[in-house]
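TA notes. Do not distribute before section.
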Amino acid sequence: MTERTEQSIVINAAPADIMAVIADFPRYSEWVSSAKEVTVTEAGPDGNARQVAFVLDAGVLKDSYELRYDWAADGLSVSWDLVRSDLQTAQHGRYGLVPQAEGSTKVTYELTVDVTIPIIGALKRRAEKAITDAALKELKKRVEG
């Protein structure tokens, strides 16, 4: 069974404000350090991105991939799955938002990634943890900044 990595952070903003940043793919390269190019390739009828292509450069890890998104009707979560990739064989992720005390939201990021090259499970989980940690910190900085 594939294990997933999960981390959370509290952001001082309303869920709608956080989800607006998550959904604004054309601006990802402004705040996601490893995202070099992000292109919405298909929009849904609600205006949210349905499919998005990424060019990632995280030093030793470089990849071009495309994800398909599923936005919850309540605006409190979004999940995605891999469509295609140069390096990955699977990716499933999810942001879940839970309102906290007035003006703050707990954001949980879940991620499972499988890659084409063999990698020890502990190293894969460590890489997933680094990805989720960086993503949450960058999201918090963008929303609160």
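Switch to the second chain here.
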Amino acid sequence: MKNKPAIRVATVSDAAEVSRLLRSAMLTYCADSGISSSMLEAMTESVESVEDRISKQTCLVAESEGKIIGTICIKRVENPLVYSFSDETFAFLEKAGLSFYISRFAVKQSFRKTGIGIDLMARALDIARESDAKSVILHSAATNKGMVDFYGNRGFELIDSENSRGYMRGLFALTF
């Protein structure tokens, strides 16, 4: 890679390109996780719902040569207990303090393992830290070794997992 990709805040005009990237990346995520693409909400959302998320959350994109090659969204969560699905999760989230939630994290296949994902995650975590967050939480397939390792290498811990969506879905948390 000649020039390091720029990371910037997404705009509503990025929604169609972000939507295409998410669909493509989620197909790989499904294959790596051993789950059907029909189980993922991200596979069925419209460009309009991506526009809505971009307008309401902090969504970042990585851009190289005018093309979006990565994305991540982070939002402040007023009540992290909405993510509770067990007594163990409830106990953690009850003490979590000001929390942020990460979603729709994706990097274009040809740019994986180049540091783009690390840079996007670092920028998202900086946003949480700058807002005095006490924790950052996210969900991921607990069967996706690559993602579990990626999050673990960033300091996230698996808090709990559940199967309500038809696959083993983990709640991961990073505390500051």
